[in-house]
Design a protein that fits this description.
By secondary structure, this protein is an alpha/beta fold. It has five helices and eight strands; from the N terminus they run H-E-H-E-E-E-E-H-E-H-E-H-E. A four-stranded parallel β-sheet has the order 2-1-5-6, with helices on both faces. Helix 2 (about 60-70) links the parallel strand 1 (about 45-50) and strand 2.
Length: about 190
């Protein structure tokens, strides 16, 4: 479709089928680590995008994918997305800004997601929960595009899905990502 062309260009920039930080709100990591369900001519309209929330999340990092994919109400030809904020448990989550957000979904929607976005992880001092890592792996196996924002790259790396692939993270942490996960082809120059 002609009306999908700008969106396709945004998703397919530079490496193929992934969402780049330069095109979408200046976030700091993105990489396609899954087969694209829509290479066979499928429509992007109505796709499910799961955004992972967790205790200590930055409201800004959570809001960026919500704004990019969920705020267009004016252009009827622009693709529509179903945004689902997910966490290991449905609950109120404290944020870095001192407010709480209510997370309406557990990790179940990742089973049918078209895209999973992991915002900036709050700490590198503790590993992400195994339940979250497995849900991301399962989403990837079902064809979801997996996106990490900034230190969300460390979560994706912990799944093993980035092994042997190019990736980046916040420029201050590329050396740390390389140290912890030497099997990833770190690309600090893309940011």
């Amino acid at each position: 479709d002609a009306h999908r062309e700008p969106f396709n260009l945004m998703l397919r920039a530079q490496y193929g089928r992934f969402l780049t930080c330069e095109q979408v709100a200046q976030v700091t990591l993105s990489i396609d680590i899954g087969p694209n369900k829509h290479d066979q001519g499928g429509s992007m309209a109505g796709e499910i995008i799961c955004i992972i929330a967790f205790a200590g999340i930055s409201p800004f990092q959570l809001s960026v994918p919500c704004l990019v994919f969920g705020e267009n109400t004016l252009d009827k030809d622009w693709p529509r997305f179903e945004i689902k904020i997910c966490a290991s448990q449905q609950q109120f989550m404290p944020t870095r800004a001192g407010l709480e957000i209510r997370v309406p979904y557990d990790l179940t929607p990742l089973q049918t997601a078209d895209m999973v976005i992991v915002p900036t992880w709050p700490t590198l001092d503790e590993d992400p929960p195994e339940e979250l890592l497995q849900a991301i792996i399962n989403a990837h196996q079902h064809g979801a595009v997996i996106v990490g924002l900034c230190t969300g790259a460390f979560v994706l790396a912990a799944t093993g899905l980035l092994a042997g692939r190019p990736a980046t993270t916040h420029w201050l942490l590329t050396d740390e990502l390389s140290r912890r996960y030497p099997d990833i082809k770190i690309r600090p120059e893309v940011l």
